[in-house]
Amino acid sequence: MSRGKKFVALTLMTFVVIVVLGAIWGHKGGDPTGTASTAANSYTNVFQGGVQAGIPVSQVGINQLATSTGGAGLSVNFVWVLITGFLVLFMQVGFAFLVTGLTRAKNAAHMMMMNIAAFAVALLAYYAVGFAFMFGGLQVLSLGGTSPLSGMFHIASKTNGGIIGTHGFLLQSHGSYDVGVMVLFLFEVVFMETAGYIIVGAIAERISFAGFLLAEVCMGAIIYPIYGQWMWGGGWLAHLGTGPLSLGHGAVDFAGSGVVHATGGWAALALAMVLGPRIGKFNKDGSANAIPGHNIPFVVVGTLILVFGWMGFNPGSTLSAIDNRIGVVAVNTLLAACAGFVLAMIITDTKYGKPDISMSCNGMLAGLVAITAPCAFVAPWAAVVIGMVAGILVVYSVEMFDKLGIDDPCGAISVHGMNGAWGVLSVGLFADGTYGAGWNGVNGTVKGLFYGDGGQLVAQLFHVVVGFVWAWGITWLIFTIAKNFMKIRVSEEAELEGLDMPEFGVLAYPDFVMHHAAAGHVTTDAEETPNGSPRTVDLERS
Amino acid sequence: MKLVVAVVKPHKLDDVKTALENLGVQGMTITEVQGFGRQRGHAEVYRGAEYKIDFVPKVKLEVLVDDADALKVTEEIQASARTDKIGDGKVWVLPVEHLARIRTGEFGRDAL
C-alpha cells in the first residue's frame, strides 16, 4: 500500500474504534450531567443517615442549606481547578517562545511546529490510554463528586499501592464520562503536556519530525502516565509510608518537580544522548562552541509567561479551592523563582564578566521547577533557599553537560531534570510540618530531615532514583530500538540548511535577511565534516 | 567625478547625513555591511561557552561628487563620523569613468 492509502486506512480504523467504544461504554455508571456529583455532597450524604434516619420537619431548612453549601463547595473546586488548568495550558505559549528564542532563526518554524504538534499528539495519546493508566485507580477525587476511577492493578496488597490504573480509557470506560473526571482530566493533561514540551529544548535543531512525534506519543501514553500513577494515582511510591518500609509519608511531590519536570528532563537527556550533538556544537578536543539563540526577547517573554502559568501549576495542585494553603503555595513559588534568577544572574556575571540573560531566565525556571514539589510544605525562607540552590545548580549543570558532550540547546536537562531532582529532595529536607496531615494515608504532617523525619528524605531519594531509572531508561530503550527502523535525526544537509524548508517547506522569516553578528556564525572543525576542512555554517539564505 | 565611499558606525549615520546635506550634497546610497579592521571583532560568553563576533555591523555610505568637492566631502565625513574610539571606520575616494541619470539621459557632471 502507498503511504497515503496506509494513512487513510489507519485514520478510518481509529475513527471506527473510537465510535464503537464510545457507543458501547456510553455513560453507564458515570455522572455526565453533574446532578449525582452535587447530590454526593448533599446533607443526606454529608450527615450519615439523613432522611432515612427521620429528620424532624424543623430541620428541613437547615438541611437544604447544607445541601446547597455542599454543592457550592464542589462548584468552587471545579472552577478553581479548571482556571488553574487554563493557566497551565498557557505555559505552552511560554515554552514555544523560550525554546524558539534559544535556537537559530533557520529552525524557528520547526521549533514552533514541534511545540504545537506536541500538544495535539500527546493530548490524544493521554486521552486514549495515558489518563487511564495514571488515574484509573485514584479512588477518591479531592475535588468531590462521584468516583468512577477505581480500577488499579496491585502488586501484592492494596496497602503497597498499585502499579497501573485500569479505568477511564478514552474518558468513557467504566463510567468515567463524568463531570468530576473531566475536570481532573483537563488539569492533569496540561501537566503531561509540560513534560511533553520539556524534551523539545534538548532535541532541538536536529530531531526529525517523525522521531519527535514518536517521542510525544510515548510521553502521553507510557512514559509520563505510568510513573505518574506510582506517585499520584495511588501507586507504590506514594505508599512507601504505609508499606513495610514506613518511610515518612511515602514519596511526596506536591505539584510535580519529579513527576512532571524530572520525567521530562530525564527523557530529554536520553533523547539528546541517542541523537548526538548538533553539527558544530563540539570541537574535536571536546570543547563546546556557543550557538547563540536568535531571539533573546522571546526568551524573556517566554520565561515570564511560564512564571504566570506556574501560578496555576502549583496553587492548582491542591485540586481544591477550599484548601487555604493556596496563598502560601503561590508566594513560595514566586520567591523561589526570583531567588533562582538572581543567583544565576550573579554567578554568570562573576564567572563570565556579564550577566547572561538566557542563563538568568533558566535560573528563574530552575527556581520554579525546584519549588514545585515542596511549595506547599515549606516556609518562605526555605523557598528562597531552595530557589537560590536551583539558580546555582543550573549554571554549573549546563557547564557539566557541555563538558560531557551532551548537547542541550535550551538547558532543558539542567533546568527540569537536575532541578526537578533537587526539588524532590528538598521536600525531605525543609518540609516544616505545617501541612499535609494524613498525606498518603500516614498520620501527622509532612516533615523533612531538618524537622525530625529522616525517613521522608529516604522516600524522596527513592522518588529521585526510580524516576531517573524509569524516564531515562524507557526513553533510551524506545529510541535505541526505534532508530533502527526510522530516521530519528534529519540529514546533514537539512541540519546545515535549517530544518524549516526540508521538513515543512516554509521559512519562519522569509522576508528578513539574517545578520551574522546577531544570529551566530559558526566556523567549526567538528568531526562531522566529511573532508575534514573547516566548514562555515551560514545563516544567510539569499 | 569621484565616488566617495565610507564605512562608519551605524549610530553615526544620522550625523554624517546631516553634515553632508548642510554641505549641499544632493544624494547618497547606504548599505548595511559587516566587517572588521585592526580591532578584529570581539569575544563574548553565551551560556558558559565563549564565542567570537568577527564581523561587526557597520554602514557603508557612497556619495557621487564633483572632483572639486571630493576632498571637502571626505573631510566632512571624517569630522562627523569620528568618536575617537576604536572601530570608527574608513573613508576613501575612487575615480568615476562614466555617469548617467537614467530618467533624463543626462551625462557626466549634469547627472550629479
Description:
Chain A is mainly alpha-helical. Chain A contains 17 helices and four strands. A two-stranded antiparallel ribbon of chain A has the order 1-2. Chain A has a two-stranded antiparallel sheet with strand order 3-4. In chain A, helix 4 (60-101) packs antiparallel against helix 5 (108-135), helix 4 runs antiparallel to helix 9 and helix 12 (380-403) packs antiparallel against helix 13 (412-430). Chain A starts with a helix and ends in a 5-residue tail after the last strand. The model of chain A is unreliable at 515-542 (pLDDT under 50). Chain B has 112 residues and is α+β, with helices and mostly antiparallel strands. Chain B has two helices and six strands. Chain B has helices spanning 13-23, 70-81; strands spanning 2-8, 29-35, 42-46, 49-53, 56-65, 90-95. The mean pLDDT of chain B is 91. At the A-B interface, helix 12 and helix 17 of A face strand 3 and strand 4 of B.
Tell me briefly what this model is.
The complex is a heterodimer of chains A (about 550) and B (about 110). Chain A has about 550 residues and is an all-alpha fold.
Key phrases:
heterodimer, A: mainly alpha, two-stranded antiparallel ribbon, globular, B: 112 residues, alpha+beta, four-stranded antiparallel β-sheet, 2 helices, elongated
Main pleated-sheet profile of chain B: 4 strands, antiparallel
Which shape of chain B, going by the Cα principal axes? Answer: elongated
Spans of chain B of at least 5 consecutive residues whose pLDDT stays below 50 are none
Number of strands of chain B: 6
Structural class of chain A: mainly alpha
Head-to-tail CA distance between termini of chain B: 9 Å
Radius of gyration of chain A: 25 Å
| Continuous helix count of chain A | 17
Beta content of chain B: 35-45%
Question: Could you spell the SSE succession of chain A in H and E letters?
Answer: HHHHHEEHHHHHHHHHHHHEE
Give the overall shape of chain A, derived from the CA principal axes.
globular
Would you identify the regions of chain A where 5 or more consecutive residues have pLDDT less than 50?
Answer: 515-542
SS elements, strand count of chain A: 4
What is the helix tally of chain B? 2
The major sheet of chain A is characterized as: 2 strands, antiparallel
Write down the overall mean pLDDT of chain A: 86
* Largest inter-chain contact set: A-B, 22 and 15 residues
